[in-house]
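Reopening this ticket.

The earlier resolution said the output was attached, but the attachment link was broken on my side. Pasting everything inline this time so it's all in one place.
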Amino acid sequence: MPKFDDHPTVKWWREQAAVSDRTVKTMPLNVDALRQLCLDAGADDVGFVELDRPTIADQYTDIVGAFPSTKTLLSFVCRMNRENVRAPARSIANLEFHAANDDTNETARAIVQRLDDIGVRALNPAAGFPMEMDRFPGKTWVVSHKPIAVAAGLGHMGIHRNVIHPKFGNFILLGTVLVDAVVTEYTYPIDYNPCLECRLCVSACPVGAIAPDGHFNFSACYTHNYREFMSGFTDWAEAIADSNEALAYRRKVNDSESASMWQSLSFKANYKAAYCMAACPAGEDVIGPFLANRKEFVQTVVKPLREKLEPIYVVPGSDAETYVTKYFPHKTVRRVSSGIHPRSLQGFLFGLPLLFQREQAKGLNATYQFTFTGSERRKVTVTIQDQTVQIEDGHNGTANLKITADSETWLRFLAKEYNLIWALLQRKIRINGSPKLLQAFGKCFPS
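Inline output:
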């Protein structure tokens, strides 16, 4: 084997370097040329954000963790076929979601390849899945595409928590490319929100995840729409494990649900709803039929989704269960576990705002002070007041209930692996205050 200095590749590079300077380019990329490069690669619109933009400061650590030399965030959109998304037949809608997701990832890869051809380093995180599941149930995504797209001027978030593009509406998927170069000009948020606040997304959602006042119930959306992803899959796997025979399994999971899970495992997981996107009439290319005849739009787009006979997956005791029973009595309520089992205190605290059920918290105004001991030590204050939840580090204010718990025991209790009474008897969990307040706390976070 030749010595390092005599290796053919090493010698070739050094010969080339002697002819032309191969140091990293410092000249900004021309914004017009870069935009055209992205459009030629398959993007339908694109914007550019400098890494140190204050509005995305909370994304900085994750971005440089993925690609330390990032200087510019290249945000782009790929359009979806909206009639496919609107179809009551979820097989049609899901085929569109998955095909568009593949297109978005291929577009991002093409952009990175073309930048590499001109000597610019870049990296493209996934548009959706796959994600970093070793972090689950914490933040599994590498880059938060939505706030970056808003910062880049590609739209604003609607009340349904989807980015609405001013021209294409919410029938888009988002991609982000991290670029090791600056550009000659950056783009900024548009000066209006394309969201019409028509509340059709509120009407279409079968689990009440979107409230008329703009409140969003993450748990309701996640449990139903993502039934065949992540925690829903975990819950299904546990249903198999808990069944000692086929008949016991069938009592928990019917044949169509088993077939649906097989389909997801074979052909990619299927979204159960996403009706909020289907019903949205915002965007220049989309709004025409809605403005021409609103009644007909509701009859042809929203009503078929509302009237669809289908199972709706809810956590027992959740706001979603109450909502479905009241507003969609013709749909079949399927009570399932959220499948979320935090394995760290950070995961537990991260999940509290996402799992909080404000209707279950009605009338509860209490301050809880947690002292965690053992392998993870931490002091936390959780305040539930006026149907909101606030989490703070340290002990703040006057506690209505004080909870001291061994961190490992607490996490096992949340995962239903440890009995609370036994933990109290062993003094691995201790409470100072009314036990009813602990029960009330649990009702706000059903799992």
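Reporter confirms the inline version is readable. The longest strand covers residues 72-79. The chain is about 40% helix and 15% strand.
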